[in-house]
């Protein structure tokens, strides 16, 4: 395994924390059962995962982290990797899971459904065999304007002053020299000479010189790398032109087919591109509910357009989470506004108790280079300091040269900044508004749970306890605790693997699957003895335990 990290340019010494030798860790393996099955070793994977005491499902990475470094060392910020040609092999996925990937994202803009199905199968297999709970997210294409496939090449350079043709014509095979395809039929009608075309949020810029039938002649005014299916916006007199765009549906017919695919494949999250209003999220949620009765799929609203900013609070209230999709967002609002908008979205999501992902260009230079820029590290640090739930890699892990190394940078920077914030008490103390409406019944389970979690977190910080344990069937109580961002990690015990995977995207939660008893005392004693037996906690550790089955707060010392 170490050799694998070396291949990607990471010596094991560079990992300051948490990545232990898998040979010392175990897993109970079974995904969905009661954890009694031994992991299968039928494939050609590292044969280094002995089955330890059954009864509890935990992944080998969390287990190793806890064994080596104790509670304080666990990473609170979750990490998402977009999977693409650079990361879709089984061994590559395994290495990413080992290196801390919490969620695998599939961007439906790219690749065939067959390809996506293969990745989903591999991630499932890894979870089953190794006890991971890597969640799966699909991300819709959306119907904004984008370029075509570049006729099979992976990228093309546009140089300053070069002439390029944007065409809505369909070409079979290779494109004529200097030609780019656009997916939007009305493109040539809509643009005007003098307009500015912004590719991929500013990676490359062109000026429209002339229109000849379906072809739009442009001159490159800001050189850069063109990638397949890159997003295109056009600007006139310094303003985004979006009259036609605004008429396009948020969820296109292709998106609906992709959503059906996601539902039938049983993915955990669906992220919707270019959300404009809350209605589209409501509609999708009821569609999902009618199609998949036995399981929940979290719907994430991608905030990446002017419209989504106008309706931000309404959208976030109805969604299950949000993504600050800075790539397209930065193409729709002035770049200098992106940092403050990011912060506002992160804060709002926390207030409304919705997980939030910060995405795009976090480590963009690592697509090509093995080390990040200092500015990128500062950007990652800021997102961690804002205490976003998750950070996402896009091209870095999908098609870059150093997917594993990029993930390792996210991990080490997160760990370091989290520790620094705790030591220096540098985190923002946010006054959390009450989630339940003031009119609601004082004794409603909702309100009581919220108060229990607020108080438990407060106590945990004041007493300096080692961990909070939460026993939760649907995961809600765990997310209420996560919302408080306590200093110690939160161990979330739930009885279904699907809930466990879903919780894996939320800040500070270490999700376990365990058969829950209705008797809280039985659960507590069982988890204490199982975790102690596996060396994940020690006698004398101080824990606060809460549950949504019995509304109480207990302070317990591990016997
Ligand atoms: N499934 C895939 N197949 C091929 N290439 C992919 C895939 N997913 C992502 N990529 C590549 O990674 C790049 C970055 O991914 P992402 O940010 O998700 O997409 P986009 O750039 O289209 O917004 C893409 O432009 C594409 O080149
Ligand atoms: C994450 C984003 O969306 P996509 O990669 O699908 O364009 C973004 O625009 O930042
Ligand atoms: K997308
Ligand atoms: Mg986008």
UniProtKB/TrEMBL annotation:
Entry keyword Nucleus: no
Protein EC: 2.7.1.40
Keyword terms, alphabetized: ATP-binding, Chloroplast, Glycolysis, Kinase, Magnesium, Metal-binding, Nucleotide-binding, Plastid, Potassium, Pyruvate, Transferase, Transit peptide
InterPro entries tied to this protein: Pyr_Knase (IPR001697), Pyrv/PenolPyrv_kinase-like_dom (IPR015813), Pyrv_kinase-like_dom_sf (IPR040442), Pyrv_Knase-like_insert_dom_sf (IPR011037), Pyrv_Knase_brl (IPR015793), Pyrv_Knase_C (IPR015795), Pyrv_Knase_C_sf (IPR036918), Pyrv_Knase_insert_dom_sf (IPR015806)
Stretches assigned to the Pyruvate kinase barrel domain: 75-406
Cited SUPFAM superfamilies: Phosphoenolpyruvate/pyruvate domain, PK beta-barrel domain-like, PK C-terminal domain-like
NCBIfam families associated with the record: pyruv_kin
Protein name (Swiss-Prot/TrEMBL): Pyruvate kinase
């Amino acid at each position: 395994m170490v050799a694998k990290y070396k291949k990607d340019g990471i010596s094991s010494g560079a990992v300051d924390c948490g990545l232990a030798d898998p040979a010392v860790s175990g897993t109970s393996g079974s995904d969905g059962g009661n954890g009694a099955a031994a992991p299968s070793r039928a494939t050609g994977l590292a044969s280094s995962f002995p089955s330890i005491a059954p009864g509890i499902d935990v992944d080998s990475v969390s287990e190793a982290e806890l064994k080596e470094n104790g509670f304080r060392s666990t990473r609170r910020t979750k990490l998402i990797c977009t999977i693409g040609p650079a990361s879709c092999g089984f061994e590559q996925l395994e290495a990413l899971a080992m290196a801390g990937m919490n969620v695998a994202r599939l961007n439906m803009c790219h690749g065939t459904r067959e390809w996506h199905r293969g990745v989903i199968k591999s991630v499932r297999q890894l979870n089953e065999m190794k006890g991971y709970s890597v969640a799966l997210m699909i991300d819709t294409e959306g119907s904004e304007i984008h370029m075509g496939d570049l006729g099979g090449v992976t990228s093309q350079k546009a140089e300053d002053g070069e002439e390029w043709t944007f065409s809505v014509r369909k070409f079979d095979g290779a494109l004529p020299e200097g030609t780019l395809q656009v997916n939007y039929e009305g493109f040539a009608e809509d643009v005007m000479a003098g307009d500015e075309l912004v590719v991929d949020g500013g990676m490359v810029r062109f000026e429209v010189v002339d229109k000849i039938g379906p072809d739009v002649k442009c001159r490159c005014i800001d050189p850069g790398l063109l990638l397949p299916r890159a997003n295109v916006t056009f600007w006139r007199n310094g303003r985004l032109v979006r009259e036609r765009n605004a008429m396009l549906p948020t969820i296109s017919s292709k998106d609906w087919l992709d959503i059906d695919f996601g539902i039938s494949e049983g993915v955990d999250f669906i992220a919707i591109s270019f959300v404009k209003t809350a209605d589209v999220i409501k509609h999708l949620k009821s569609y999902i509910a009618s199609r998949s009765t036995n399981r929940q799929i979290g719907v994430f609203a991608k905030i990446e357009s002017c419209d989504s900013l106008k309706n931000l609070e309404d959208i976030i209230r109805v969604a299950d989470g949000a993504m600050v999709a800075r790539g397209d967002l930065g193409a729709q609002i002035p770049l200098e506004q992106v940092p403050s908008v990011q912060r506002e979205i992160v804060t709002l999501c926390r207030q409304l108790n919705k997980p939030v992902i910060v995405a795009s260009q976090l480590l963009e230079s690592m697509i090509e280079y093995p080390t990040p820029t200092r500015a990128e590290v500062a950007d990652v640090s800021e997102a961690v300091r804002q205490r976003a739930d998750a950070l996402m890699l896009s091209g870095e892990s999908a098609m870059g040269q150093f997917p594993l190394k990029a993930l390792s940078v996210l991990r080490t920077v997160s760990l370091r900044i989290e520790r620094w914030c705790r030591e220096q008490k540098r985190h923002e103390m946010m006054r959390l508004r009450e989630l339940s409406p003031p009119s609601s019944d004082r004794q409603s389970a909702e309100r009581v749970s919220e108060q229990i979690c607020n108080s438990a977190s407060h106590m945990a910080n004041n007493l300096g306890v080692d961990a909070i344990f939460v026993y939760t069937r649907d995961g809600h109580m765990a997310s209420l605790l996560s919302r408080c961002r306590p200093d110690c990690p939160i161990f979330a015990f739930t009885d279904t693997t699907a809930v466990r995977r879903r919780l894996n995207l939320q800040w500070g939660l270490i999700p376990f699957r365990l058969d829950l008893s209705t008797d809280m005392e039985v659960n507590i004693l069982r988890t204490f003895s199982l975790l102690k037996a596996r060396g994940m906690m020690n006698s004398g550790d101080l824990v606060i335990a809460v549950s949504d089955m019995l509304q109480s707060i207990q302070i317990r010392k591990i016997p």
